[in-house]
Amino acid sequence: LEALVEGLHAGDRHALSRLLSLAARGDSLPSLGAPEHSARVVALTGAGGVGKSTLAGKLIQHIRVHNLQVAVLACDPQSPLSGGALLGDRIRMPGQPDDGVFIRSLAAPAGGGAIAAHLPAMIRVLECYGFDVVLIETVGAGQGETAVHEVADVLVLLLQSETGDDLQWEKAGVLELADVIVVHKADLPGSEQTLAQVRAALDIPGVKSIPVIAVSARTGMGMETLWKTISECPRRRAAGLAAGHELLQMAQEVLARRFASAAIQASLRLLVDNWRQGKLGDEAAATGLLRMLAKM
Ligand SMILES: Nc1nc2c(ncn2[C@@H]2O[C@H](COP(=O)(O)OP(=O)(O)O)[C@@H](O)[C@H]2O)c(=O)[nH]1
Ligand SMILES: [Mg+2]
Fold first, then answer.
1. Are the C-beta atoms of residues 68 and 83 closer than 8 Å to each other?
2. Which helix (H) or strand (E) holds 183?
3. How far apart are CA 23 and CA 17, in angstroms?
4. Cα angle: 181, vertex 85, 16; to 5 degrees
5. Edge-to-edge strand order for the sheet containing 70-75?
6. What separation in Å is there between the alpha carbon of 202 and the centre of ligand 1?
7. Measured in angstroms, how far is the CA atom of residue 255 from the centroid of ligand 2?
8. Rounded to the nearest 5°, which phi and psi values hold at 220?
9. 104 CA distance to ligand 2 centroid (A)?
10. Residues near ligand 1 (Cβ within 6 A)
11. Whose CA is nearest to atom 2 of ligand 1?
């Protein structure tokens, strides 16, 4: 395992592939160390047939033009990205296989508990290898978005016109979960209307506005705007961590306050005495104290 981790940091594809498989199975990995930089994790979600795979393929090209390395986790066994259209895990750019692209197909949609639970570990592996962008393609069905929302920096929801999808999404409360909404296949008639409907559905006073973009992977319309919007989105994972530290600080304050008012309690004095006399170890005493304060 240690050799694999070394290989991962040295850019060895075989090590990457092995570690990803372990992470996908939920095996515990050794410490991977810190990645040199964190990746931007972008989830593409939406109903089957809305064009997630096609759009992902186009996004890869855009991302490569910016000279960024991109990995794709396709939580859709039928994704042409991971199927016959591409050779192995390398996409065919004009000429030769591209070392800046890596694609891994996962057997189940990310919304199903197991995969969602293992995504953070897989993302960590990809980050340590050095990918700048991680795309997650996953079929959305309400619950799926919630699971992926937690692990991605940016959640992109794809809708298309003439399917009534927009209304379904609206009901499921999924629209509000998205960071970017794409009205896809904008080359087809009816997309103007869908665009207007979605914008109207999201026009709630006091709620932060979500960008809604008309895109066609087929014609390339809106692609540049989409990538620009995605790259300018704040990173949810980083924000989550920062917020976590803030929360920890607040919790410490709460504990200190409770400790001050509990100091005279007999049970607390007993705990402290036991610790002082060495009857309780540091960790056990500290945990005991936490338990007492948590109950107050
Ligand atoms: N008209 C049009 N069709 C598209 C576009 N993008 C994808 N499609 C078609 O939509 C179908 C489903 O595409 P796919 O990418 O497999 O959808 P997924 O199931 O969401 O991954 C295919 O037949 C694509 O050729 C687009 O921008 N415009
Ligand atoms: Mg697909």
1. no
2. strand 180-184
3. 10
4. 80
5. 101-105, 70-75, 133-139, 40-46, 154-160, 180-184, 212-214
6. 25
7. 49
8. 90, -5
9. 13
10. 46, 48-54, 184-185, 187-188, 216-218
11. 185
Beta pairing, strands 133-139 & 40-46: parallel
In this structure, which amino acid lies at residue 274?
A: N
**What's the pTM?**
0.77
Q: Alpha-carbon distance 218 to 187, whole Å?
A: 8
Q: Return the C-alpha torsion angle 19, 21, 27, 28, nearest 10.
A: 20
Distance CA 26, CA 119 (A): 9
Q: What is the pLDDT of residues 35-49, one digit of tens each?
A: 888 899 999 998 888
| Residues comprising the chain, all counted | 296
CB 100 within 8 A of CB 70: yes
CA distance 100 to 70: 6
The per-residue pLDDT for range 206-232, each reduced to its tens digit, is 777 899 999 999 999 999 999 999 999
Q: Which pLDDT tens digit goes with each residue over 40-73?
A: 999 999 888 889 989 999 999 899 999 999 999 9
Do 293 and 268 form a contact (C-beta atoms < 8 A)?
A: no
How many CB atoms neighbour CB 121 within 10 A?
A: 21
Tokens 């050794």 correspond to 30
H-helix or E-strand containing 124?
helix 113-129
